[in-house]
Write a structure and sequence with these properties.
Chain A: It is a multi-pass membrane protein. The structure holds two protein chains of two kinds. By secondary structure, chain A is mainly alpha-helical. Chain A has a domain of 208 residues: MetI-like fold (Orthogonal Bundle). Helix content of chain B is 25%, strand content 18%. Chain B folds into three domains: 128 residues, D-Maltodextrin-Binding Protein, domain 2 (3-Layer(aba) Sandwich); 140 residues, Dipeptide-binding Protein, Domain 1 (Dipeptide-binding Protein, domain 1), CATH 3.90.76; 251 residues, Dipeptide-binding Protein, Domain 3 (Dipeptide-binding Protein, domain 3, Roll). The chains are: A mainly alpha, B alpha+beta.
Chain lengths: 326, 574
Amino acid sequence: MTDVSQQIQPPLDPVEPAALTEKPRNQWLDVWDQFRSHKGAMAGLIFLIFITLFCAFGPLIWDVDPGKLDIRNKDVRPIYTVLWDGDAKVSWARPMGTDHLGRDIMANLMQGGRISLAVGWTAMVLAILIGTLVGVLAGYFRRLDWGLMRFTDLVLSLPILPLLLVMMLLFRDPLRAAFGPETGIFILIVTGIGITSWMQTARIVRGDVMALKEREFVLAARSIGTPPRRMITRHVLPNVLSPIMVSATLGLATAIITESALSFLGLGFPSDFPTWGKILFDSVDRMVAFPERVLWPGLAISLTVLAVNYIGDGLRDALDPRIRGM
Amino acid sequence: MKLKTALMGAVATVAVAQMAYADAHEGERGRDGEVKIIYWQAPSILNPYLSGGTKDIESASLMLEPLARYNASGELTPWLVDEVPTVSNGGVSEDLTSITWNITPGIVWSDGTPFTSADVKFTYEYCTDPESGCAQLTKFDGVTSVETPDDLTVVVNFGQPTPFPYGPFVGGESPILQAAQFADCMGAKAPECTDENFGPIGTGPFVVTEFRTNDVIQMVANENYRDPNKPAFASVTFKGGGDATAAGRAVMETGEFDYAWNLQLAPDVIAQMQEGGLGMPVAGFGPLVERIMLNNTNPDPSLSDEERSVIRPHPFLGDPAVYKAMSMAIDRPLLVEIGYGQAGKVTCNWVPAPAAVNSDTFTCDVQDIDGANAMLDEAGYLDTDGDGVRETPDGVPMSILYQTSTNAVRQDFQALIKEWWSMIGIETELRNIDASVFFGGDPGSPDTFQKFYADVEMYANTFNGTDPQTYLGNGLCDKAPSPATQWQGENISRFCMEEYDALHAQLTTTADADERASIARQLNDMMVENGGMIPLVHRGRLSAHANSLGGIDLNVWDSELWNIADWYRTGDNR
């Protein structure tokens, strides 16, 4: 990937004269073509779709209650253990084994993935919304710039764990009363992660908006009297879409990791509510005897995050018209 | 005739062999070389009066000894005295205001000077000096004076009748210091006496040769120890630091050490270490009990701060049918197996130790889901709307919030108990709170165990020493935490019963040991029977020793090293 950000070019390539004779091609098809050429991004996309389907529809096929305790069948090893240890306690009914209380690990991975991915996506959307809003406002309106950016610095300096602890303390009971224990905590965690991870987006967007604001096409638009509201939605936002999408993918990864870290520390969801981070946390004590119990949730977290990072990378390339077609 | 002779010979041989075996650990002092002990918390001082830390108190117990101490079953045993004074042998006065100790003649300090009653009196003055900041000051609560009528007699006088006068000079936390050595270390100068605090002269089996703070202590056998054949070891290396896992491995897997203290590890982890084959774990049981506390007040979040977990009663937990059914639904042996292994026992009692106060009124080691369901049906708690959760006769769903601290074993217990309670139609919401917050006692936090903003909560509690009077006081009505007391108070379940308070008052004026134990058992039964708590597991302390080390008698009432003079090398397995 060549760094071409220094070159001054209009955001959209002027259409080649030869292309004028052909039917105009949807620019998203170009983006898709470029994206497809990025092998890592394609692999990441396929994995993300797979893991999403696994978590979303897996429980419909693998109809086992993840919270069901089955003490007689505790500590069952995954089925593949038979390959090197014929005496291992395995069962086809528990292909990925069970934990020390007899809970099915596969069902837990699916249920945990649902929560982890849902937290990741929702927190990411929240962070992107706040970040873009703050970034565009600060970049476009000079009067708001100083205040908003100092506010961003302030939030940036907040430590997330103590902040979440305080939020738990203040809002848990009202949220629990209003939405029930699980949804209440979900809202709390998503909000917590969302409002502590929008700052990078805001800074990047602000920089890009400030650069765009001085460009000729923006000047032209202003000279015909376009009001700021339309200026932002028509001219500025479409041109900062690329950094926003990239930081969105990174934000998804961060949110999943933060949720895992919170669960790992024993904060976050109630203990009978599996998430990938929580499964990992519960298994660490018996890591030596049962490595698969940390391996699978750990792999799920890291592969998802890696996949999303690659997708972001591919998207960045695909959305940048200067790279596209090179 | 020949046969008979042969048989007689065989019998004689066996007898001789057995005698030889029994005598294998008798012999001259220092015959077994070195013993290595590891404590994963490192001692920083060897003066128990300047430190409350178990590691410091137990390491000091190799040198310093009390007049009497508790043995492994929690019984008071004479140590530097002829017998334990009681009312019946005249050692304790009839009005319970004084106790007379008679020191065994002939005991000398490790420097060869005689041990006298003046040393005991000095120890009292040393600790109660207002400027000294003595860590064991509570041991001397209520003592007005210590008199020494002669060199071998000590009289401790109390300001008021004290039915349990065995606080001062009893147990590893209150040993005797040598007056000659510490004479210049009184009051504010106490912490400055580095040489004295790092190498106290004692009457115990060992003498310090080198003390490296927070690292290692080297000791050799005391040449002037009162039993000429003890200790069996010529020297001790006492290593501090590391963590419980490493300490367990060092004894059971690699054999670098002979004794490791307090291994707080999961049973399967211990079992794995034991496969190393060089050592074995030993468990000792104090009064530590993991229990579920039942909230006797209403924790409804819609109540105001002044009323929540203050006003009585709870919507349904106060009904005997409910808490008994909840207790019956629990499979305690399984909890023990999963959570504590050898370091746990099933208990139905609040005070399961010492043995004398362990009530045998209840049995609870068999899970009875059907019985619990029948009990709830009979009491009118039925699932009227078909959602799997019972409702009270008033229509309140039986849904409870179950909180505890964040800890792997406790979360496993929560998951299991939630499942069992769901089988009897009680819905449970789980919550786990960071231990530093839960036990932190901050009146501003809603999550402390004292505030008890939940229906039930699980934790473990215990008491020091063997006398449960103060601990049983945790069931008194006026000990309940409330906003008026800044949420301080030990009656966490807000249990309140006039009969209980009256019986406890009777305990505070009873001196006879048997009668005290009987009252303690009744108080325990009242608490459990009337919905104060559901006891789950009697938890012990687990230490490990090398297979080649003999004479270990794990003591949870006193220093674990209380009988190190009797330790010996078995000779095999090494």
